Amino acid sequence: MINIPFQAIDWSQVPKVEYKGETGTAYWQTLQFEGLRIRMVEYSAGYLADHWCKKGHIVHCLEGEFVSELQGGTEFKLSKGMTYIVSDELSTHRSVTKDGVMLMIIDGDFLR
């Protein structure tokens, strides 16, 4: 069990780390706890992930829209206010956005 004391998070104080996609750029602000990672992630316009991911996530779209592509060809379009959830190893997916998007992504041991 993870014990996290109450805390308010000022995301403007969490450093942004840049990750290049196949095209575009992702900017991550990350809080890491034992077995739990919480991120604010911004994908620039024209972003396409540089890899296929098998990790489980809870992904909530805060602004904009994006497509989560599954390796088998299925696509899910998510826009502001929408969320997707998947456990580890249950789908191989990647993100793509035309105009950019801001997401909150939560993942960790509980999705195994």
UniProtKB/TrEMBL annotation:
InterPro entries xref list: DHCW_cupin, RmlC_Cupin_sf
Top-level division of the source organism's lineage: Bacteria
Protein name per its UniProtKB record: ChrR Cupin-like domain-containing protein
Organism whose genome encodes this protein: Pedobacter westerhofensis
